[in-house]
Design a protein that fits this description.
By secondary structure, the chain is of the alpha/beta class. It contains nine helices and seven strands, in the order αβαβαβαβαβαβαααβ. The structure holds nicotinamide-adenine-dinucleotide.
Length: 282
């Protein structure tokens, strides 16, 4: 039987006219993702706790000829996510793609030479904050926007894990465990959607490596202790490509995962890390 894949190649990666909801779109990485999708003809709902920043992203997309809206969202509060969902549906009438980009670490959940995990000056509050932001901040929007996809019978969810989900990085105890939780949740949700709701609702994740942004500036640039080289040098030493990532380098993997090209791909993870997760350092 002749395959019809080749005759449809031009449509394989097309997201033209789709609607994407992006949390954390006021931030560095997902601002770039939002702008990238906007350029490809995707209608973008730029959502963030910082409405000003979400609005800037939407304004940039619209100024470049795209179609974007901005709304405030607190991914930790169901009422706020529901309000954002209602605003998106009022404007675009459907949700084809949800990208859970909001997330991050908390300084109080990072060990330091003078603040060790066991003798702890390390704050449980910081650890709880980090678990909440990453895990609940992915679970709640997935639940609320996922319901819309279930009603539509189709959709794509992309979560944001990290290369430290498999091999934890030193110092960031809660962030590493939280991102591992996201990877596990991605697989759980992928199976649940396909088995119990619709095999046309796919759930995947990206695993970024190191992209210099505000939230990791301290860890990358400052020397954590006098005996070690700076963390930035250590990271590049273990990155086969010997450089940090650029935010736009996330766009291609996301386009693939959202597109018809990935129609049989669910529960998977794409590393975008310059090889960091594949190299022992030796
Ligand atoms: N920068 C990296 O190297 C790196 C590596 C791996 C994974 N990540 C992940 O990528 C994502 C984006 O990171 P970034 O580096 O662009 O950071 P960023 O701080 O620039 O972006 C995070 C955005 O999330 C928003 N946010 C925070 N709390 C929120 C809440 N409760 N509700 C809604 N929005 C909220 C912030 O306002 C911010 O705009 C995060 O999930 C992060 O963990 C980053």
């Amino acid at each position: 039987m002749k395959s019809n894949v080749n005759s449809n190649l031009s449509a394989l990666f097309s997201l033209e006219g789709k609607t994407a909801v992006i949390t954390g779109a006021g931030g560095i990485l997902f601002g770039a993702v939002a702008r990238g999708l906007g350029q490809l003809g995707v209608k973008v709902a730029s959502l963030d706790l910082r409405l000003n920043e979400a609005q800037k992203t939407a304004d940039e997309i619209n100024a470049a000829g795209g179609n974007a809206m901005a709304a405030e969202i607190d991914v930790l509060k169901s009422e706020s996510v529901t309000k954002a969902k209602d605003a998106v549906l009022a404007k675009f009438n459907r949700v084809d793609i949800l990208i859970n980009g909001a997330g991050g670490n908390h300084p109080k959940a990072t060990t330091k030479p003078e603040e060790k995990f066991f003798f702890s000056d390390l704050s449980l509050e910081g650890i709880r904050f980090t678990f909440d932001l990453n895990i609940m901040g992915t679970v709640i929007p997935s639940m609320i926007f996922g319901r819309v996809m279930i009603q539509q019978g189709e959709g794509v969810i992309i979560n944001t894990s990290s290369m430290n989900a498999d091999i934890p990085l030193s110092r960031i105890v809660a962030y590493s465990a939280a991102k591992a939780g996201i990877s596990n949740f991605t697989k759980w949700l992928a199976a649940d959607m396909a088995l119990n709701h619709s095999p046309k609702i796919r759930v995947n994740e990206i695993r970024p490596g190191f992209f210099p942004t505000l939230q990791n500036a301290d860890l990358i640039n400052k020397t954590p202790g006098t005996l070690t080289a700076s963390r930035g040098t250590d990271i590049l030493g273990k990155t086969p490509m010997k450089r940090f990532g650029k935010p736009e380098e996330l766009v291609g993997a996301i386009v693939y995962l959202c597109s018809p090209a990935a129609s049989f791909t669910t529960g998977s993870s794409i590393a975008i890390d310059g090889g960091f997760g594949s190299f022992s350092g030796v």
